[in-house]
Design a protein that fits this description.
Blueprint: H1 3-11, E1 18-23, H2 26-39, H3 43-49, E2 50-54, H4 60-67, E3 77-82, H5 94-105, E4 111-117, H6 127-134, E5 137-141, H7 150-158, E6 163-164, H8 166-176, H9 180-193, E7 199-200, H10 202-208, H11 217-225, H12 229-241, H13 248-267, H14 273-280, H15 284-296, H16 299-316, H17 326-338
Parallel strand pairs: 1-4, 1-5, 2-3, 3-4, 6-7
Length: about 350
């Protein structure tokens, strides 16, 4: 079932005996877990029948004991295992495996059991997880691909009676990425002070996420693309003095994404702006900026930049790095990119 289908069924009070939510995108897992907390029991029923437990505090035996309890003064009980990735389920322990497999195939009818497995999926080749998936309402929460968060942003705002312009969507995604938790935090900040029914614009997003600040990873990619050497060095020096504002992994990711788009742009310059926007995964509003940057970075130079990014990624991880600090690595990297 899809995220939307499971969420709808929960709100309609159509509960499965077992749920298994897992994957790399924690946001959707948390939202489904919250929906169960809000809908399985009434407020008066929760005191004795809502069991929110954590994987690290459980053993499989204690989990089964909780699940087999009968509800008190309610039709059912909820057993929600948060951070289920910490629950130690060892397939080599046959007794435990049989205990779990028996419950998965014969769940307590008055119990709603849900596993919220964060930060990735388990090894699905193991029998225990194959059976869990086969005998549950299972949902794999995958990371949203770059350039694909737009529909989520639009829908999130529409559900709260707001709207957003296409160029504002693109700007938000380009600046904060596709982490759903980060995106929803930014959208929530917008909503708090906005009048009902507002349509958010490019300038609203620009102001909200702080793009007017002179020092950001987003601004660094822009000034490098424009070959604004003095400003690029100024930003690099700021990151050296304020490492939390521009950590190396963030900058490497931002620069790789930027030059990847430049490469696609440089390889397809014969296309119209609308076609080029589709190819590089950007709003047509930004195509002129990418085309201008390609004049500074033709394909041979872009390829050299990719080699530099790879080199500095390895050096940041300690390969061939002789006590050079993160800040110094950033300054070196920016200098070399500007002079390829």
């Amino acid at each position: 079932m899809s995220y939307e289908e499971i969420l709808k069924s929960i709100k309609q009070k159509k509960f499965a005996p077992i749920y298994f939510f897992h994957g790399e995108e924690d946001y959707f897992i948390d939202k489904l877990a919250e929906a169960l907390e809000q809908n399985v029991l009434t407020e008066s029923e929760k005191a004795f029948n809502q069991n929110i437990v954590y994987g690290k505090d459980l053993t499989p035996q204690s989990l089964i004991e909780i699940c087999n309890r009968l509800p008190m003064g309610a039709e059912r009980q909820l057993v929600l295992v948060r951070e289920a990735q910490s629950l130690q389920i060892k397939s080599e322990d046959e007794k435990i495996e049989k205990l779990l497999l028996h419950y998965f195939k014969n769940p307590q009818k008055t119990t709603v059991l849900a596993f919220a497995h964060l930060h990735g999926s388990p090894d699905k080749r193991k029998k225990i997880f194959k059976e869990l998936i086969a005998n549950s309402t299972s949902f794999q929460s995958d990371k949203i691909k770059e350039g694909k968060a737009g529909p989520f942003i639009t829908k999130f705002l529409e559900e709260q009676d707001f709207a957003i312009n296409a160029d504002a969507v693109t700007l938000l995604e380009e600046f904060v990425g596709t982490d759903m938790t980060v995106i929803t935090n930014e959208l929530s900040k917008l909503i708090i002070t906005a009048p009902p029914g507002k349509t958010f614009t490019y300038k609203d997003i620009e102001k909200s996420v702080g793009l007017l600040k002179e020092y950001s990873a987003f601004e660094l990619t822009n000034v490098i693309g424009a070959k604004n050497i003095s400003k690029a060095y100024r930003i690099a020096n700021y990151f050296k003095s304020n490492p939390k504002s521009g950590p190396m992994p963030l900058l490497l990711g931002a620069l790789f994404n930027y030059f990847n788009k430049l490469y696609l742009c440089a390889s397809n310059m014969s296309l119209s702006d609308a076609q080029l926007a589709l190819v590089i995964g950007a709003n047509p509003y930004f195509v002129k900026d990418y085309k201008a940057a390609v004049r500074n970075y033709p394909i041979p130079k872009i390829e050299k930049v990719f080699h530099l990014l790879s080199e500095y990624d390895l050096r940041f991880k300690g390969v061939d790095n002789y006590n050079t600090t993160e800040g110094e690595l950033i300054r070196e990297m920016v200098y070399k990119i500007m002079h390829v």
